[in-house]
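Note to self: keep these together.
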Amino acid sequence: MKIIVVIPARGGSKRIPRKNIRLMCNKPLIRYSLDNAATLSDDYDTDVVVSTDDEELRAVVTGHCSEVVIRGENLSADHVTLDPVIYDAVVRMEEEHGIKYDYVITMQATSPTLKADTLKKAVRYAIDGGYDTVISVVNKPHLSWGRNDKGEIVKNYKERLNSQLLPPNYLETGGFVISKREAVKENTRIGEKISVYETLPTEAVDIDTDEDWITAEAILKRKKILFCVEGRRILGTGHIYRCLTLAYKLIGNDFLFVTYSESDVGIEKLESSFFPYKVVADDGEFEEVLKDYKPDIVVNDLLDTKIDFINMERKYTDRIVNFEDEGEGARGADVVINALYENHPNKLSNVYEGSDYYFIRDEFLESSPKEFSEQCRNIMIMFGGSDPSDLTMRLYEICQVLHDKMKNTQFHFITGLGYVHKDKVVDIPEKNIFVHNDVKRVSEYMREADIAVTSQGRTIYELASQGVPAIVLSQNEREAEHVFAGIHNGFINLGLGKNTDAITIIKTIQWLADTPNVRREMRNLELTREFAKGQKRVIDLILG
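Structure:
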């Protein structure tokens, strides 16, 4: 099979001067098409020729294609279509080398986002299907309007439907036109048996305007980011929520979430997120995913990784970022972000710790704290997505006692996706106790709270962003090591929840509710934190 790829590229361009040889992401624009065309040599006897009218362009492409054809002035004018240009290049190559091509592929110099694999599949599709011509297209069904012969505005559709229900509307991308040699003539490259090859919208950018250039650069700079994350009832859902938030902020990149089969609540949350994800049974299956996806960056939101695990990831990626990792694997990561710890002993040089590196969800940056209230009318109780120590039930019982002492105060319980006792913790309106399960925007409830009772995880940062004075009970010994939740930042920390008696909790809540000056000072301390800067620091660390 003898194939010729012709890349027409004039030197002049009015909208983007010298665009074909200008650098896009440190490479001349035309080189993207040349590099893609060169990959066809893996499977076919292929010549790549550039047809141009420009000596500088000729110098740029020399060494990256089989040959350069300098076209005459009669083929270089603005009104000349591509058909005679392609025909001229093919005929001259055949005459000069005494050969006959089987297929002629036209590739524009202005399609930098097209992938070589897509081109290869399209050529195979054309050959296997016996098509005379195959054109690269993108499917963009839209309601559209035009003009009739009288110049009147008329609709181009039969009935108004949602775009996903409209018939296909194929737009040529300029990426390639694959033609049998006999279909290529001086005034056409289109044969009788025609088909289209649909590309992704991200591969369909044709550089014609400044906006196209900006779009193409953004696509070429995209990173493939793999999130390895777990979310089990015993651990909570904070890891899942953080990675989802990161993906929302890193929009414009490609993502794949990977979690293990025991991540029960994690799988449920990923399913509802609509991000692509895979569930693996073990590290062996995970390695197969890494091998296939070839990520630019791996983000591990797992507790205490092993060095063998990190070394396995390192075979398939150049950058590894871990969150809250105190395991031996932390030494092998490029970056470890431990926002919940500060002044940790034996801190590694690749570790970034403390509240300056907390990645807060957007909803807490969008929400502004309410005005301070001298009276405590609303207390929020929240112990994370799964509450493994079931501190919710303890406070549920305590608040029923507190109601007799604080009759004008409402108690609002926020329970997460993984909380297993939802059937037992229910509204008791006569005691001003209200329960809210798996709320979508917890910031709305925080904004109404005068006091919060919570565990010592990520919620403390969210409360601080809203200026809500909080009483803290740790879920476990590891969580008790998180030092942010101290009086210096506006929190009253009662230590390990299981070791704190009910009387202490009751008295502390009552005292704080009755001491507005203390609550105001706690609030002021919390609101000194600039969490928006933490978001940017984390994004910069991930992207390197």
